[in-house]
């Protein structure tokens, strides 16, 4: 069986069907909609493939417009907005079955000398001192539910929560809207910096909205909300490898009007701030019959 990390690399390896037009696969999985991080990662690959490859991406801004259908290919159309002396800008539209489901603007920049400063990384235990997500679920339930086991088999990232999961409403009392996890790809991703950037873009949508849910309901178990990513922004500060451990520190400054805002900071093990992330998500209460789904939000 192919390693999930290899499947992620394959997922990000788009087919060029015309100049500035690419086609990406969408796995036929038992999800309501295509995972948003997949679409964002593939769109960034499409943007990067129309540059000379010498300028790393420094920011992206994206909107999730419609839910994508699992199992149906997605076409990415790239518009070359600007090729300047220091910056390159691309706009990408993702189309599935004739409808626009997503758009993204990405900017690429040649690194320059300048000031160096950042806020320090939070003091947290290292990933080796923490259980994997599967081990934590198994220790609480005694065995992995079949739905979780299926997800675990296709999961391209090892995820380790810094704080233990809370399983009951009673445990949520006094909990702040914050979450932190260590993550890394479950296998090597090769040496192409664009692949690592797009893989991290994929990972950035996996659990950022956890911070919004944290004070409201347990992250695992019956869900009380239909959740979907609405928009997503990232700023890439330093080079990195996504197959090495990184800390994803998340917080939610506000949730209101059926939407929740989450901010994330991604650090390497040495404490360097690699990436900043901001996302807004939709939160609609589920009717009682809809609340049987288990697990965290699938994004997008």
Short description:
The protein is of the alpha+beta class and 300 residues long. 18% of the residues lie in helices and 35% in strands.
List the helices and strands and how they pair.
Blueprint: H1 4-11, E1 15-18, E2 21-24, H2 36-48, E3 57-64, E4 74-83, E5 87-96, E6 99-109, H3 133-141, H4 146-154, E7 157-161, E8 178-185, H5 193-204, H6 210-213, E9 225-236, E10 246-256, E11 259-268, E12 273-285
Antiparallel strand pairs: 1-2, 2-4, 3-6, 3-9, 4-5, 5-6, 7-8, 8-10, 9-12, 10-11, 11-12
Characterization of this structure:
With 300 residues, the protein is of the alpha+beta class. Helices cover 18% and strands 35% of the residues. The chain is built from six helices and twelve strands. It has a twelve-stranded antiparallel β-sheet. A hairpin with a 2-residue loop joins β5 (87-96) and β6 (99-109). α2 (36-48) packs antiparallel against α5. The two termini are 27 Å apart. Residues 291-300 have low confidence and may be disordered. Residues 33-109 form the Acyl-CoA thioesterase-like N-terminal HotDog domain. Residues 153-282 form the Acyl-CoA thioesterase 2 C-terminal domain.
């Amino acid at each position: 069986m192919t390693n999930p990390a290899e499947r992620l690399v394959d997922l990000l390896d788009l087919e060029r069907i015309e100049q500035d037009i690419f086609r990406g696969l969408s796995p036929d999985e038992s999800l309501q909609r295509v995972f948003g991080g997949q679409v964002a990662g593939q769109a960034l690959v499409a943007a990067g493939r129309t540059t000379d490859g010498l300028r790393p991406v420094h920011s992206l801004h994206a909107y999730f417009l419609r839910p994508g259908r699992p199992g149906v290919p997605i076409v990415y159309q790239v518009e070359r907005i600007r090729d300047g002396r220091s910056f390159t800008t691309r706009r990408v539209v993702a189309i599935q079955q004739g409808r626009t489901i997503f758009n993204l603007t990405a900017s690429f920049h040649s690194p320059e000398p300048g000031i160096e400063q950042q806020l320090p990384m939070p003091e947290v235990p290292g990933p080796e001192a923490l259980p994997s997500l599967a081990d934590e679920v198994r220790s609480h339930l005694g065995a992995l539910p079949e739905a979780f086991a299926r997800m675990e088999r296709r999961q391209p990232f090892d995820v380790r929560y810094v704080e233990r999961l809370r399983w009951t409403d009673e445990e949520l009392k006094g909990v702040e809207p914050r979450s932190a996890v260590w993550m890394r790809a479950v296998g090597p991703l090769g040496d192409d910096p664009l692949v690592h950037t797009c893989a991290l873009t994929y990972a950035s949508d996996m659990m950022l909205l956890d911070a919004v849910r944290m004070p409201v309901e347990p992250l695992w178990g019956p869900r009380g909300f239909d959740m979907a990513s609405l928009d997503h922004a990232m700023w890439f500060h330093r080079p990195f490898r996504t197959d090495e451990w990184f800390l994803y520190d998340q917080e939610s400054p506000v949730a209101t009007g059926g939407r929740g805002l989450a901010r994330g900071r991604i650090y390497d093990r040495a404490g360097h701030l690699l990436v900043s992330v901001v996302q807004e998500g939709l939160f609609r209460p589920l009717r009682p019959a809809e609340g049987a789904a288990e697990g965290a939000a699938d994004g997008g």
